[in-house]
Amino acid sequence: MAEVALINATKRFGDVAAIGDVSLTVADGEFVVLLGPTGAGKTTTLRVIAGLETLDEGAVRIGGREVSKEAPALRDVAFVFQQYSLYPHLSVYDNMAFPLRSPTRRVPEDEIRRSITEIARMLHIDHKLQNKATRLSGGEMQRVAIGRALVRHPSIYLMDEPLSSLDAKLRQELRLELKRIQRDLGATMLYVTHDQVEAMTMASRIGVLKQGKLVQLGTPREIYEDPAETYVATRLGQPRINLMPRRLFPSLPTPSSAETIGVRTEHLKIDRHHQGAARVARIEHLGDQRYLHLSLEDHSIVTLAGHDTDLDVGDSVALQLERPLFFDRDGMRVRP
Amino acid sequence: MNEHSGTISIADKAAATPRPVAVRVRGLSDKGIAWLFVGPTIVLLLAINIFPLIWTIYLSFTNYAANRSGEVKNVGTRNYERILNDADIWAAMQATAHFVIWTIAIETVLGFALAYLIDKKFRGHGFWTTLLLLPMMLSPAVVGNFWKFLYEPQIGLFNYAISYLTGIDRTSFQMLGEVSLAPWAIVIVDVWMWTPYVMLICLAGLRSIPDYIYEAAEVDRASPWRQFVSITLPMSMPFIMLAVLFRGIENFKMFDLINLLTSGGPGSTTEVASITLKRAAFESWRTGYSSAFAIILFVAVFGLANIYVKALNKVKQR
Lengths: 336, 318
Prior knowledge:
The complex is a heterodimer.
Chain A: E1 4-13, E2 16-26, E3 31-35, H1 42-50, E4 57-62, E5 65-66, E6 77-80, H2 92-97, H3 109-122, H4 138-150, E7 156-160, H5 168-185, E8 189-193, H6 196-202, E9 205-210, E10 213-218, H7 220-225, H8 230-235, E11 242-245, E12 260-263, E13 268-271, E14 278-285, E15 290-296, E16 299-305, E17 316-321, E18 325-327, E19 333-334
Parallel strand pairs in A: 3-8, 3-9, 6-7, 7-8
Antiparallel strand pairs in A: 1-2, 1-4, 4-5, 9-10, 11-12, 12-18, 13-17, 14-15, 14-17, 15-16, 18-19
Chain B: H1 8-16, H2 21-24, H3 30-59, H4 78-84, H5 87-118, H6 125-137, H7 140-150, H8 157-166, H9 182-207, H10 211-219, H11 224-252, H12 256-261, H13 273-282, H14 287-317
Protein name (chain A): ABC transporter ATP-binding protein
Organism (chain A): Dongia sedimenti
InterPro entries (chain A): AAA+_ATPase, ABC_transporter-like_ATP-bd, ABC_transporter-like_CS, ABC_transpr_MalK-like, ABC_transpr_MalK/UgpC-like, Mo/tungstate-bd_C_term_dom, NA-bd_OB-fold, P-loop_NTPase
């Protein structure tokens, strides 16, 4: 394992900069998650580190060594693709053995067998080792692809939404498993996802990408509680953070340039003993909790309500904001 | 229908559950309508495919000759016995085997190699693809005729090119006129004409391999050769086999090109099965005998193709 760094990396496709001036260091043994919507440059960032794309500007360093000009094979990275990139005519075992059987590696066959058996057990595919790769379910294929990366001990594991094609149950299971494996191996990992739960639960640090720029990098807690702009704030949290114009709360003390007030659902308290300006528009029952949809003038606001709530549609309530976040006209954070 | 019984309640019911097509079309059942659609095709198929086949089987057991009137006698399996003991027939089968095996071997190797090059997407690859595909789009009659000119010892470009490259006198050999060269002359023409076809199928195979598999292999440190052997070749194998199947069947019954180029000559060195068949049927007018030969060829091709398709499916399932 090693430290991996991108320094002022820019990659253009035609006139479009897929990533622009991105600097990012993944420390040895760290699990960094890149978060962002489609087209934000997450995958390109991974591909640039792997050497599947060459940088237009900037540099890639792996373990302190400049590798920008080197072929993927020489960079000692493992890559898990979003699609099941298995070798279809090979068995599961041979698929996992494929990287180890490279003539440049010279891993003895019994050593290969040992590590495949171990990893396969971890991923619950040990009973499928002799199957053809094409005779597997989608979830199994992706676990084989992950396994093929894990049998190696590369400088860094690069994973491009490896769990996105799996069903919810398996995704949750593998999420925990991957995190555990990463911790056990002390693996350096750069992981791309648009799933905020994966980002929050797995990452040591989260990097949020916006149109090819890294807009914030920090621990999940920092990103969640202290977002640098509305874009970052809306990436995390379910339901989404409530963004409301400042004029809705005239009595709230705010910094002068603040235009928008952001309040997470759990920080929006309802005072039902006071009549207020907000009206209950809809109540969603989710079993363990309830989403309360309120309308305040022409804005809709979502908050959480406990089981014991006796609120009904049409009731009017007063709102209390805890720990509000302020953003200026451009959506940038303003601190009081 | 039901114009007179169309009361409000019935109309309501009809709106709630759409009535089956059969009820709406003059009391025909759904199955009846299905037959109505498939019927004409089946009749046509019976008339131009199945009936001639059965009739040919019948004729193959008779001494029928199409140019003679007179009694048609049932001769049992005598036609078949004669064919299997006929040295000319076996010579024809050998000529066919030579033609089929060599054309397939050369076309597959060349076609795949060309497809591999074209797939590299160099500048202007579209133009080159089109250019390479041209021979395949010509009519065999045209190809046969102008290759005859190309093979002319005096004025032919082929002989000129050979003599230019090797220094051999261009009038010292005749591609179509010599026993040792004629079988290769027809192989060359077929390769020229049909390699693009094999290339096209192989290209489809190569294009069906997703890029990320190669990228995964690259990250996994597979050399270009290892990528070729463990990804490119096995993943395009079903396509290659399909091309071989198509060319095999086509060339087994190859007639037009060879008939134009050599008419089976010199002697009978390029007399492939289909030419022998045509001679027996329309020159010697031994209709019963040639029918038996046609049936034997049919069974042979059918059997081989079946075995081959089974193998193909096995490769596909891997």
